[in-house]
Amino acid sequence: MSAATPFGSAGNTPVRAGILDRARTVAPGSYNRFLVPPAALAVHLSIGQAYAFSTFNLPLTKLLGITQSAPGDWSLKAVGWTFSIAILFLGLSAALFGRWAESAGPRKAMCVAACCFGGGFLVSALGIHLHEIDLLYFGYGVLGGCGLGIGYISPVSTLIKWFPDRPGMATGMAIMGFGGGAMIAAPLSIFLMDYFKTPENNGVFESFMTMGVIYFLFMMFGAAIVRVPPADWKPRGWTPSVTPKKLVTTANVHVDVAWKTRQFWLLWGVLCMNVTAGIGVLSQASPMIQEMFAGGVSAAGAASFVGLLSLFNMGGRFVWASVSDYLGRKNTYFIFFVLGIGLYALVPSIGMAGSKPLFVLAFGVILSMYGGGFATIPAYLRDIFGTMHVGAIHGRLLTAWAAAGVLGPVLVSYIRDFQIQNGVPKAQAYSVTMYIMCGLLLIGLLCNVCIRAVSPELHHRETEV
Amino acid sequence: MVRLKLALCWLIVGLPLVWGVAKTMQNAIKLFQ
Asked: Are residues A146 and A277 in the same domain?
């Protein structure tokens, strides 16, 4: 099938490609490439809602009792599984459907993601209405999780192809949306529940229905405006560098070959360690600041701290990924790990000194590097494996996120509990955790240092998929 | 026409994001009160 015309062929008869097919999304000459980041942002801002799912946790435990949990209401632990299932399916679907999303094109992938994510909300709403938690797990966890995974990877390779001159900045812009989505979803969920609540109903069912429709439409808007560049397209006035860089390939590595290479697993380690360190802090941020500054930070103040961390997480995605275009990916990750080790090692002293602004700043920078790690990895993959299968390879690499999503929070909470059981004061219970995080970042640093270019023998022979 | 479309698309995704960031910043003040 030609990439330049909207026609496919069946035997000798030309067949017009469907509206969602890659062939129909090839950009016309007048297309402005800066329309692609809003398309990607529309998807990522929507699926970023996942980070704010916890706003529904308590209301979901009061569906029968309305003001407080009644017998028969779901427990917080049972509701908590919904988010874990969603993250698990994010990793699985990104790994399983990455190759399909690459060949189907961004529009089809975004539509499927919109149907899964929006539909997941609607199925969950039905589960809430019938008070069937399995439907909530299936709706938000399984369907929604698949929407998260497919939606996350769908615009990445398209952006890299449109911005060969600034791949870090382009993917950073999109992945920034995933961090920013929670900042929209948290106040939106609270507003909707307030709007729909009555004395007999806490408004969760209606909020899920409304959010399902809003997110579906918003993601479909992204699918409608996204375009892929014509074959051999280059930005005007841009010529690829003639002096080859050691870690930036102009060749391509097939996804089935890439994931068997040493480089893939080293990058997996880099992402996993960087995410483990960040996600562990994110999951415990609220109790951590309250316990380390006993009496100095209220619950509302702690919630503000979590909000500020989201802001640093979002900003870091754009800033660090853009900076990586100038510094190189390996150097950027080197900074993440070295600076991260230094900051984690300093946190216990900052806590003991009682300096709240320094504490917030230290964790702000740590979280900016957590977000930066997510946003820089697609460009790192493109540098190492080329653009051909970067979306599919990225999908498989996201299993590192799923692993870190379990490892990080478990590590932080387990060590804290162990410390407290052994008589360590709550304010100091996080010190050992911080030093363990330093160790994890050191492993990540070593993985990063070991990354070398892929052997030319493994390069793909053809230029087209 | 292309520029208008571009501005409109950025506005559609930018406005909710700015609203979310503003809400977060508003709440962040509480931390230092």
From this structure: no
Nearest to B20 among A39, A184, A300 (CB): A184
User: Is residue A465 in some structural domain?
Assistant: no
Residue type at A49 in one-letter notation: Q
Distance to chain A for B20, nearest Cα, Å: 4
Q: How far apart (Å, rounded) are the C-alpha atoms in residues A217 and A32?
A: 23
Q: Which one of B6, B15, B24 makes the best mutation probe of the A interface by having the most chain A beta carbons within 10 Å? A: B24
In sequence order, what DSSP letters do the residues of A98-155 get, joined into one string? HHHHHHH-HHHHHHHHHHHHHHHHHHHHHHHHHT-HHHHIIIIIIIHHHHHHHHHHTT
Domain containing A377 equals 255-458
pLDDT 10s digits, A256-302: 999 999 999 999 999 999 999 888 787 778 778 888 887 778 877 88
CATH of the domain at A132: 1.20.1250.20
* Whether complex ipTM tops 0.90: yes
Task: For residue A200, give both structure tokens.
Answer: 């007999």
> The whole model's pTM is what?
0.88
Q: Pinpoint the alpha helices (H) of chain B.
A: 2-28
Residue A301 distance to chain B (closest CA, Å):
4
Give residue for tokens 């053809």.
A462
Q: Letter for the amino acid at A205?
A: F
